[in-house]
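Supplementary Methods S3. Complex input for the pyridoxal-5'-phosphate-bound model.
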Amino acid sequence: MTDNRIYNFNAGPAALPLSVLEEIRDAFLDFKGSGMSITEVSHRSKWFDEVINDAVERLKRILNLDDRFTVLFLQGGASMQFCMIPMNFLAAGGHADYVNTGTWSTKAIKEARIQGKKVDVVASSEDKNFSYIPENITFSEGAVYTHITSNNTIKGTQWAAFPDTGGTPLIADMSSDILSRPFDADKFGLFYAGAQKNMGPAGVCVAVIRDDFLSMVPEGIPTMLKYSTFAAKNSMFNTPPCFAVYTVQLVLKWLEEDIGGLEKMAARNRRKAEMLYGLIDASDFYRGTAARNSRSMMNVTFRLPTEDLEKAFVQDALDNGLGGLKGHRSVGGCRASIYNPTPMAAVEALCDFMKTFESKKG
Ligand SMILES: *Cc1c(COP(=O)(O)O)cnc(C)c1O
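Predicted complex, serialized as structure tokens:
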């Protein structure tokens, strides 16, 4: 049944742990003796209550969050957060700093400006095609928040350490690296992630909000776009994406019980990334596109000598059971997304394939 599964390097939706998929399959027709599928039970039932509460508690445990933080399950993807953040936190006329490190940051800035909010782009790596993370940034005085994209899925860069904003709370789009390494949540007013990269299927976005940010939410904005609406109802103001939340719960359980938490997850991720970058650095055939000190441990972007070779590489890889290696359509090249669920064996298989391909075509 699993014989024809490939090694999946898709950027998102992306690979999930096989054990999670098997658990979903096994429980699919009769969830916990309910006689119903998880896609059929009421979100107001004890079955779903257990699912969502367990997911919240696990996320708080894994990320070491104290009681100031509320975990929310929202819809509209990470992209909806681009609009909700300025709407909720800049209502009183304040200003915010944004660091522009690529496509997703650019979109976040655009959505704030559409609403007429005052946004200062305090640093950008656009001058070098977003191939690095800016350093020595001067932040504005009195900004309500500083928005960053912790991992740039398309360009293959990642903040190795979060910037010192001089006390301004950070807000981070962590869509493609949440739960990949430990971090100090204290610096954050809010962080969020579409689930479909590191955490589950598409259809749910996790947002973690601190109480001082929750108390900034104004009255006069639409109910469905207010963080407070969802915080007051344990993310069940309206029907939540039950199946997506359930899958996230299982991925969190896997991370906690099978992997053993964030330190171990990070060590595993480091080993995978080092193996792949090591091969790229040792080769004149493959060329990494991100500056070395800004490289992503999640999305490894690289080029081959010609676009024809890149095309052949992606196709040949797929014929060998390695999928999803085409770079984002906006940048071309190749990209291997090696999120939490990607096993070491997948990276080993990819490295073997890359060596063989180079020896044939290099
Ligand atoms: C994929 C991605 C998004 C977009 O997520 P949606 O859930 O599709 O809206 C935003 N930011 C980052 C960093 C991403 O990787």
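The chain has two domains: 21-258, 261-361. The domain at 21-258 is CATH 3.40.640.10 (Aspartate Aminotransferase; domain 2).
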